[in-house]
Design goal:
- The chain is α+β, with helices and mostly antiparallel strands and about 170 residues long.
- The chain is built from three helices and six strands.
- The protein has three domains: about 60 residues; about 50 residues; about 55 residues, Head domain of nucleotide exchange factor GrpE (Nucleotide Exchange Factor Grpe, Chain A, domain 2, Roll).
- The protein is about 60% helix and about 15% strand.
- A three-stranded antiparallel sheet has the order 1-4-5. Strands 2-6-3 form a three-stranded mixed sheet, with no helix packed on it.
- A hairpin with a 2-residue loop joins β4 and β5.
- It is elongated.
- It starts with a helix and ends with a strand.
């Protein structure tokens, strides 16, 4: 009988030890589960942010497609404008015949730019805007306000809502 009581006491003493051990394991597993859930939530948020950023980048690329080509065409347009300024309106000589062809090509180029939403920056006789213009020269002119554009040396262009090339201007002092 004594042996039965001793065995019974052993059994009752072992149960609380097992319960404590199980309880600790459960708590550890709960903490690990919580940490993993937090990690999953952070990774999910990071994936969503990456997806949003990539969609915005793709949208920007499509919005400004061909920007590099357009930047290379602008100096060609500048050269056409210089050539057209040589026209003396005497349509009988050979130079005028070439210039009339240049004018047609120039007009076609401008139409292409307009279709692509490329607009010239209007700045002559307007106040100097450092966001759209680059002051190359200054000149003191009587009767004009300070920081007024008096001459456009090179046209500037805007592509949709983005500055493609600033206008190079002469500004009054």
């Amino acid at each position: 009988m004594e042996e039965e009581q001793i065995a019974e006491n052993k059994n009752t003493m072992e149960k609380p030890k097992k319960n404590n051990k199980c309880h600790k394991e459960i708590e550890t597993l709960k903490e690990e589960n919580k940490a993993l859930n937090d990690k999953v939530l952070r990774l999910n948020a990071e994936i969503q942010n990456m997806r949003r950023r990539s969609e915005e980048e793709i949208s920007r690329i499509y919005k400004y497609e061909g920007e590099d080509v357009i930047k290379k065409i602008l100096p060609i347009i500048d050269n056409f404008e210089r050539a057209i300024k040589m026209d003396d309106n005497d349509l009988t000589d050979e130079v005028s015949k070439f210039l009339s062809g240049f004018k047609m090509i120039y007009t076609n180029l401008l139409n292409v730019l307009n279709e692509k939403e490329i607009t010239e920056i209007e700045c002559l006789n307007k106040e100097f805007d450092s966001n759209l213009m680059e002051a190359v020269l200054t000149e003191k002119i009587e009767g004009l306000e300070k920081n007024q554009v008096v001459e456009v040396l090179q046209k500037g262009y805007i592509y949709k809502d983005k500055l493609l090339r600033p206008a190079m201007v002469k500004v009054s002092e």
